[in-house]
């Protein structure tokens, strides 16, 4: 008896392309493993024998192999329509079983991975008849009827670990190999494949020209289903500490050989690589630890940005279920990320652009296209409908649609009451500071997400602005606040914002407002409480004694607001798990209050609903183990509604302390909403 093999089943209706996919997969696996391949079509007893064939397969093939024993089975003689010769299948390190019923209910307890292959009915019939010709055609309807009868009582696709939409374009085998790497049951046996994927080579090219990022994004990624633009939209006006945060912009999608995307909801992670999608039941931060945190590439010489390709997107607030908070379902995914195997990074300080790509067969073509796009976007701006300056924008303008009409989750009296309830919790000693939020939402009147973001970035430029598109979900953010940066060398930095004043057009009044914020004891108290919370959050994985506050209650001015900002630095312990270091600080203390866990419980009761993307984090997890994440504030979320329409939502809030004035707190959320709502041509909802 040999050790029990790892068994992978490839199932699907006839003609879906299972056989070719299984043969190609086995060939790839044989680079590192001994592999046996079994086809169920060899064992079905005739054209009416699907159910009997599945039973034969489970008892005479699968059960012995599962126990590490050679399987002896009787084939079917399709010419004589009777049992044929006896065959033997040996239990290799990996066994791939393929055919209709390979993952039937009786088989699944004996399998390590289930792959379901799907294709359109038209493509399936064409493939099957092209393969088997006239011998199959008279039996197509009979066989298809058996398949449907079986699937009516055994929903195999619902039990699949990986689903493959086979377009017969040659991509399915490589996409499936990528997806298999994410299944925990296969992680040990596929260790050689994982090691090979970590031996990545980064190609780079510097272009001494600064492209207009909006034109470049539209050219390279305007038609991409999933794309991310981390946009230092205030690069031309930032000064002081804000200038350092506004040096780089990153533009990427999930195209190319290495492109992937991830959606996480309530403990389930769906990873899509081309036409293959793996579903893994695991906490998000545990999954993140398997794909990020080890240095896989070296940054190019002379390249100062910490992003060296990797994962980009958002972490939603409801991931707090994994960091001590309650489990609150949201309408949007708890996390959406894409893996960029190629990207453009704009260095605004140097006036240059870097093209980055992992070495792959398609890297050369992409570099040539990106090089051309960068130079075109750096040239003179062409007047006309594609102009993206203050006078015009790419695509339909928000002004061409009726302005959205927002409603608030909380009326003014409701919000004032909740402020007082939060203060009562503070009086009773259950919290020191409670960051109470609410949501304003609207039915989408037909806004174009891209054009809406361009309007937002013009109205409210910010160092951590971003535009994210994941299918029907768009996130348009003008965040000024860093949540957490972990540099490749382990340097950690958090920069919480607490304290806000609206700006005035009159310079004298504006300076008075800035001074008022600077001298506000209440705002300083709020800020210092969050600084203490973040010092504690960073200390969990920091070198003892390395946590310092390098800047306390400094004032930074942006287009529509003055903000009070502090900076906390620390050094990550050598070998500490970086994903866990992020989790230890998540969600941002400036969005919860202190102490964090008990305050999150209070907020769940007061807020009457999920925050979703709002209050989470947007940024990247790089292949050189670096990460830079912004707090999701000043952010419009546009997502598909269940009725076929789309919903717009904007979260706003403020820190409540014992000294808070409820009326002032309500005015603060109106101030914070102004930058986004005014760009859309609308106002804060009145009661």
Explain the overall architecture.
- The chain has 687 residues and is an alpha+beta fold.
- It folds into 3 domains: 6-197, Rossmann fold (3-Layer(aba) Sandwich), CATH 3.40.50; 202-378 and 405-490 and 572-680, Anthranilate synthase; 491-529 and 543-571, no CATH class.
- The protein is built from 17 helices and 31 strands.
- The chain has a 17-stranded mixed beta sheet that branches.
- The protein is elongated and about 100 Å long.
- It starts with 5 loop residues before the first strand and ends in an 8-residue tail after the last helix.
- 51% of the residues are buried.
- Mean pLDDT is 92; it is low at 384-399.
CATH topology-level fold name of the largest domain: Anthranilate synthase
Distance between the termini: 76 Å
CATH superfamily of the largest domain: Anthranilate synthase
Strand-residue proportion: 25-35%
Low-confidence stretches: 384-399
Task: Specify the overall morphology.
Answer: elongated
CATH architecture of the largest domain: 4-Layer Sandwich
Q: How many domains is the backbone divided into? A: 3
Instruction: Describe the sheet with the most strands.
Output: 17 strands, mixed
The portion of residues assigned to helices is: 25-40%
How confident overall, as mean pLDDT? 92
Alpha-beta classification: alpha+beta
Strand tally is: 31
Question: Which radius of gyration do the C-alpha atoms yield?
Answer: 28 Å
Which CATH C-level class of the largest domain is it?
Alpha Beta
The number of helical segments is 17
Protein name: aminodeoxychorismate synthase
Pfam families: Anth_synt_I_N (PF04715), Chorismate_bind (PF00425)
Domain Anthranilate synthase component I N-terminal: 213-353
EC number: 2.6.1.85
């Amino acid at each position: 008896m040999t050790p029990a093999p790892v068994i992978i089943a490839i199932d699907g209706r006839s003609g879906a392309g299972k056989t070719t996919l299984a043969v190609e997969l086995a060939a790839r696996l044989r680079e590192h493993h001994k592999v046996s391949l079994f086809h169920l079509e060899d064992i079905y007893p005739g054209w009416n024998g699907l159910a009997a064939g599945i039973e034969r397969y489970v008892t005479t093939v699968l059960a012995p192999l599962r126990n590490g024993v050679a399987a002896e089975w009787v084939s079917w003689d399709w010419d004589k329509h009777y049992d044929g010769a006896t065959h033997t299948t040996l239990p290799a390190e990996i066994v791939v079983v393929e055919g209709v019923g390979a993952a039937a209910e009786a088989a699944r307890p004996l399998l390590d991975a289930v792959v379901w292959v799907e294709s359109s009915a038209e493509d399936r019939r064409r493939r099957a008849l092209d393969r088997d010709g006239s011998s199959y055609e008279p039996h197509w309807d009979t066989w298809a009827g058996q398949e449907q009868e079986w699937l009516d009582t055994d929903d195999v696709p619902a039990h699949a670990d990986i689903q493959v939409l086979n377009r017969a374009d040659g991509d399915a085998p490589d996409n499936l190999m990528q997806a298999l790497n994410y299944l925990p049951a296969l992680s040990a046996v596929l260790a050689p494949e994982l090691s090979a994927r970590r031996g990545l080579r980064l190609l780079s090219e510097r272009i001494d020209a600064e492209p207009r990022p909006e034109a470049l994004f539209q050219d390279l990624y305007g038609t991409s289903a999933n794309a991310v633009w981390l946009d230092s939209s205030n690069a031309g006006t930032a000064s002081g500490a804000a200038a350092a945060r506004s040096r780089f912009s990153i533009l990427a999608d999930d195209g190319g050989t290495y492109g992937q995307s991830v959606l996480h909801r309530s403990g389930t992670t769906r990873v899509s690589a081309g036409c293959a999608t793996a579903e893994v039941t695991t906490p998000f931060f545990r999954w993140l630890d398997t794909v990020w945190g080890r240095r896989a590439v070296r940054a190019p010489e002379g390249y100062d940005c910490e992003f060296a390709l990797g994962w980009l997107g958002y972490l939603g607030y409801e991931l707090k279920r994994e960091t001590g908070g309650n489990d609150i379902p949201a309408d949007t995914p708890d996390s959406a990320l894409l893996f960029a195997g190629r990207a453009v990074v704009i260095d605004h300080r140097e006036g240059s652009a870097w093209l980055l790509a992992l070495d792959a067969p398609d890297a050369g073509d992409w570099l040539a296209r990106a090089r051309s796009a960068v130079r075109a976007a750096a040239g003179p701006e062409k007047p006309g409908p594609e102009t993206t300056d203050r006078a015009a924008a790419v695509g339909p303008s928000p002004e061409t649609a009726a302005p959205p009409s927002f409603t608030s989750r909380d009326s003014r009296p409701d919000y004032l009451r909740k402020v007082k309830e939060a203060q009562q919790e503070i009086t009773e000693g259950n919290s020191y500071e409670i960051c109470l939020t609410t949501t304003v939402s609207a039915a989408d009147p037909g806004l174009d997400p891209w054009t809406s973001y361009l309007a937002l970035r013009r109205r409210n430029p910010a160092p951590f602005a971003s535009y994210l598109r994941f299918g029907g979900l768009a996130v348009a953010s003008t965040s000024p606040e860093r949540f957490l940066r972990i540099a490749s060398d382990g340097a950690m930095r958090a920069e919480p914002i607490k304290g806000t004043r609206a700006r005035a057009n009159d310079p004298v009044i504006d300076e008075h407002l800035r001074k008022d914020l600077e001298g506000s004891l209440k705002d300083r108290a709020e800020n210092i409480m969050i600084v203490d919370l973040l010092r504690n959050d960073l200390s969990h994985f920091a070198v003892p004694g390395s946590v310092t506050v390098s800047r306390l209650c400094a004032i930074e001015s942006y287009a529509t607001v003055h903000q009070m900002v502090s900076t906390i630095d620390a050094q990550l312990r050598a070998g500490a798990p970086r994903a866990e270091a992020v989790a230890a600080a998540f969600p941002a203390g400036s969005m919860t209050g202190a102490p964090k866990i008990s305050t999150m419980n209070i907020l769940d009761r007061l807020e009457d609903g999920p925050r979703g993307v709002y209050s989470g984090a947007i940024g990247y997890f790089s292949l050189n183990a670096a990460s830079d994440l912004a707090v999701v504030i000043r952010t419009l979320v546009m997502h598909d509604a269940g009725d076929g329409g789309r919903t717009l939502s904007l979260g706003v809030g403020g820190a409540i302390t014992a000294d808070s004035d409820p009326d002032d707190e309500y005015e603060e959320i109106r101030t914070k909403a102004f930058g986004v709502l005014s760009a859309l041509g609308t106002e804060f909802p009145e009661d």
